[in-house]
Design goal:
The chain is an alpha/beta fold and about 280 residues long. The chain folds into two domains: about 170 residues, Rossmann fold (3-Layer(aba) Sandwich); about 90 residues, Pantoate--beta-alanine Ligase, Chain: A,domain 2 (2-Layer Sandwich), CATH 3.30.1300. Helix content is about 40%, strand content about 20%. The protein has ten helices and nine strands. Strands 1-4-3-2-5-6 form a six-stranded parallel beta sheet, with helices on both faces. A three-stranded antiparallel beta sheet has the order 7-8-9, covered by helices on one side. Helix 3 links the parallel strand 3 and strand 4. The chain is globular and about 55 Å long. The N and C termini lie far apart (about 45 Å). The structure holds pantoate. Pantoate binds next to strand 2 and helix 6.
């Protein structure tokens, strides 16, 4: 079977030439930034972007700035040929594959500092993370200049940080959230699921059960502190470690002070199975 072809741009000038020709034809542009190792979750972002725009660019760039020393930057799964074939099947219009040296040339010395929604949760465990994400997404937005960009709710805190950045810095880009795509047993799809052993893959499915059960209880009016404590105990029992399991305001990610949940809220959790961190979240 012939592999479907998809146009590639590896330099900023090639990217801009292609986008300029679309703009001259009056076409709108959607953007899906990724780090590759694409799964159905990523492809759902491309589909959503296509539903909103005439043309869609997906970038594949494993961003060193969002990994700390000792994290999995070197071992992060890379599969550009496979990724391109998957994007072609989705009729994505262009894949942007910038080089590390072009994204972070010698002398690069700028970093975005993000607060608000970026504080706590992931940042308590990975303090560098959202500064690295915001910096690269800001740069990619300036390169692509899309009308619309799609981000998955799987990385819910990241989505809120990007929305905040776009609002604060007047990017004028419409940020569209995409629902989490799950495996049959409910495990949220993630490129890092590939790290799980067979036994841990089975254990991983407990996470979505715990957070959905908590959301159901809270919707029914359970006392927040008590329900949270019980859910944390279940998670501690099921996993090697619990980085956090929290209930936060759905937009600001601020703590909820009331006894029960009476505002749009989200359960957010990150747990560890061996070296692998599993993130999940759901609405209340
Ligand atoms: O969600 C991701 O894959 C990354 O954090 C992103 C948004 C592509 C930035 O590197």
């Amino acid at each position: 079977m012939l592999t479907q072809q998809i146009p590639h741009a590896t330099t900023l000038s090639a990217l801009r030439t292609r986008i300029k020709s679309w703009r001259q034809d009056g076409l709108s542009v959607g953007f899906v930034p990724t780090m590759g190792a694409l799964h159905d979750g990523h492809l759902s972002l491309v589909r959503l972007a296509k539903a909103h725009c005439d043309k869609v660019v997906a970038s594949v760039f494993v961003n060193p700035a969002q990994f700390a020393e000792g994290e999995d930057f070197d071992s992060y799964p890379r599969s550009v040929i496979d990724d391109s074939a998957k994007l072609a099947l989705e009729k994505c219009d262009l894949v942007y594959l910038p080089e590390r040296e072009a994204m972070y040339p010698d002398g690069f010395a700028t970093e975005l500092v993000v607060k608000g929604a970026a504080q706590g949760l992931e940042s308590d465990n990975r303090p560098h993370f959202f500064h690295g994400v915001a910096t690269v997404v800001c740069k990619l937005f300036n390169q692509v200049r899309p009308d619309v960009a799609v981000f998955g709710e799987k990385d819910y805190q990241q989505l809120q940080v990007i929305r905040q950045m776009v609002r604060d810095l007047d990017f004028g880009i419409d940020i569209i959230p995409a629902e989490i795509v799950r495996e049959r047993d409910g495990l949220a799809m993630s490129s890092r699921n590939a790290y799980l052993s067979e036994a841990d893959r089975v254990r991983a499915a407990e996470l979505n059960k715990i957070i959905f059960a908590l959301a159901t209880e809270l919707k029914a009016g359970a006392v927040l502190a008590e329900a949270l404590e019980a859910a944390r105990a279940s998670a501690e029992n099921a996993f090697d470690a619990v980085d956090y399991l929290e209930v936060r305001n759905a937009q600001t990610l601020a703590r909820i002070d009331s006894e029960t949940v009476n505002e749009p809220a989200r359960v957010l959790a990150t747990v560890r199975l061996g070296e692998t961190r599993l993130l999940d979240n759901c609405a209340i």
